[in-house]
């Protein structure tokens, strides 16, 4: 990975970088929270965001040990400073200024955000792709708004954004992509022929009748612990910062909350129930 990161990593599109800068220019506090260690985080971010990626974020937290980062007293871990990517042995009693830290906990981060924003209850929108490490703990304990990255949406009729297509064409030559297609390799977002849809499970009645369409456990969790779901950040990067998205809600159809549109299996399920 260190010898040739370009072989494994795809740089972010210019639209995503512009989106991050526009939020910072608009006065938003940008955070990067990852369970990766600092050296690995730097390797990844320098390749996908650029050598100046640290300028994009006021607070960077590595080795966050999610979901433990969202633990409450007495289980919460203290923040630690770093020297040459090595954690200091003494934990910090609190977080009093922006910077790059290791480990830590959301209550101390919340207090810092109060100071930085000047608001008694700052609102946080948290993007992640893991239900266990991101969505569930951030919404349940941190009470943050959560946006889940669900690439499986692209396997069910949701087209890739123009920015993503353009970016892929620039970083991956067509002849290289053709070789993978010739070998029969499928994209990670493609629907599994063995397991079926990520969102809807077809169950037979046992008597030869029609199959029933039930939401999968994963789909239930997305609706319960996420504010909304998108297939990639590129899908929203070109929208105005004040764009109003539909959000998941128990009193709304289960297709509400997916942007730019729901996956095919959910649409078909709604059609069969109507």
Automatic annotation (TrEMBL):
Annotated TM spans: none
Entry keyword set: Acetylation, Hydrolase, Magnesium, Metal-binding
Coiled coil: none
Family matches, as SUPFAM superfamilies: HAD-like
A UniProt-annotated Pfam family: 5_nucleotid
GO function term, MF aspect, one: 5'-nucleotidase activity
UniProt record similarity statement: Belongs to the 5'(3')-deoxyribonucleotidase family.
Name of the molecule in the record: 5'-nucleotidase domain-containing protein 1
Biological source species: Champsocephalus esox (pike icefish)
């Amino acid at each position: 990975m260190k010898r040739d990161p370009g072989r494994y990593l795809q740089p972010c599109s210019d639209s995503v970088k512009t989106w991050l800068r526009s939020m910072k220019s608009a006065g938003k506090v940008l955070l990067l929270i990852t369970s990766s260690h600092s050296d690995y985080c730097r390797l990844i971010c320098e390749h996908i965001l650029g050598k100046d990626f640290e300028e994009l974020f006021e607070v960077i937290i590595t080795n966050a040990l999610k979901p433990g980062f969202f633990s409450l007293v007495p289980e919460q871990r203290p923040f630690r400073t770093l020297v040459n990517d090595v954690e200091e042995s003494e934990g910090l009693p609190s977080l009093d200024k922006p910077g790059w830290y290791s480990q830590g906990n959301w209550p101390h981060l919340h207090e810092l955000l109060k100071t930085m924003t000047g608001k008694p209850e700052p609102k946080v929108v948290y993007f992640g792709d893991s239900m266990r490490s991101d969505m569930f703990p951030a919404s349940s304990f941190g009470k943050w708004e959560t946006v889940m990255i669900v690439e499986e949406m692209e396997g069910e009729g949701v087209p890739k954004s123009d920015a993503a297509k353009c970016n892929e064409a620039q970083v991956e030559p067509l002849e290289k992509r053709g070789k993978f297609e010739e070998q029969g390799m499928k994209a990670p977002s493609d629907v599994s022929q063995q397991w079926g849809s990520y969102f809807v499970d077809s169950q037979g009645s046992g008597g030869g009748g029609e199959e029933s369409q039930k939401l999968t456990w994963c789909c239930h969790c997305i609706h319960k612990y996420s504010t909304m779901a998108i297939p990639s950040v590129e899908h929203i990067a070109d929208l105005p910062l004040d764009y109003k998205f539909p959000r998941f809600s128990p009193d709304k159809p289960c297709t509400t909350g997916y942007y730019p549109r729901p996956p095919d299996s959910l649409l078909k399920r709604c059609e069969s129930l109507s």
